[in-house]
Design brief:
Strand content: 15-25%
CATH topology of the largest domain: Phosphorylase Kinase, domain 1
Mean pLDDT: 77
Distance between the termini: 29 Å
Shape: globular
Radius of gyration: 19 Å
Structural class: alpha+beta
Low-confidence stretches: 1-10, 12-72
CATH architecture of the largest domain: 2-Layer Sandwich
Order of helices and strands: EHHHEEEHHEEEHHEEEEEH
Strand order of the largest sheet: 2-3-4-6-5
Helix content: 25-40%
Largest sheet: 5 strands, antiparallel
Number of strands: 12
Number of domains: 2
């Protein structure tokens, strides 16, 4: 999932993704691209849209789940993302209320939402299906969820739920309002005792992941959240991979600002 930090940095992958020839029409952009297949999330976005001064008439698309899931085979635009992104009943989506925007990046939008049934706040990543297919990141998107489902560690940002709508994928995790970069920018130099604690917890997380054959590939301060007790929560497994013992990943990926000049040049 994308980091829940409001600070955005440039991400990239090499080689360049192939275009998917069976996708028709322009790529939906902005808040309006999130209306379709979201239950009451759509209504929340309409309210935010109006608050920002956009008064054009709103015509939400009809919800997808009008038939029971037993009426398979399902359309390809749904089956491609199964089983990592199952369909959810409309009533489950209607329990979510948007509280605000957390972050918006090249891979999707992260919203702060309230689950009215659980009376708990979550971070919800919303990714357009068209964008996943156009960028040829279907495998990576499904692996992100698959990896998060199999890991359980006190210093890892755990997955709450994942599902799909008519045009979007949804990944929901616990909400934390602070990340390590924002804290560093606010207070400046950390005390040595804090640095030791952060380093120890991060090493424990990485050792745990590596023992499972998982590489994160985008460890940075923006992807390290802090809970209310000040402990780390490593997040954003969007570039992570699960590799057999002894295998290697050869894709150059990560955040450009954190790379040395040789890595940027492909050297």
């Amino acid at each position: 999932m994308g980091a829940v930090s409001c600070r955005q940095r440039q991400h990239f992958r090499v080689p360049t993704p192939r275009k998917c020839g069976n996708i028709q029409g322009p790529l939906a952009r902005g808040w309006k691209s999130l209306w379709c297949g979201v239950g009451t999330i759509r209504s929340g976005l309409e309210e935010l849209w109006e608050l920002q001064g956009h008064q054009e008439p709103l015509r939400p698309a009809p919800l997808l789940l009008e038939k029971t899931l037993s009426e398979w085979p399902v359309p390809q635009f749904i089956s491609l993302f199964l089983p990592e992104f199952p369909m959810r009943p409309v009533r489950r989506q209607q329990q979510l209320k948007i509280l605000g925007l957390v972050a918006k990046g090249s891979f999707g939008t992260v919203l702060k939402v309230l689950d009215c049934a659980q009376k708990a706040v979550f971070a919800l990543k919303v990714v357009p299906k068209v964008k996943v297919l156009q960028r040829d990141t279907l495998r990576q998107c499904k692996e992100e969820v698959s990896i998060q489902r199999q890991i359980n560690h006190p210093f890892i940002h755990s997955l709450g739920d994942s599902w799909q709508g008519k045009r979007h994928l949804f990944i929901m995790c616990s909400y934390y309002c602070t990340d390590l970069y924002s804290l560093w920018a606010a207070v400046g130099c950390f005390p040595e005792a804090s640095v030791r604690l952060f380093a120890a917890e991060l090493v424990l997380v990485l050792c745990y992941l590596h023992d499972l054959g998982i590489i994160h590939r985008d460890v940075k301060m923006e992807n390290i959240l802090l809970d209310d007790r000040g402990h780390l929560k490593l997040t954003d497994f969007g570039l992570s991979r699960h590799l057999p013992q002894g295998a290697r990943a050869y894709t150059i990926c990560g955040t450009l600002q954190y790379m040395g000049e040789r890595a940027k040049d492909g050297g």
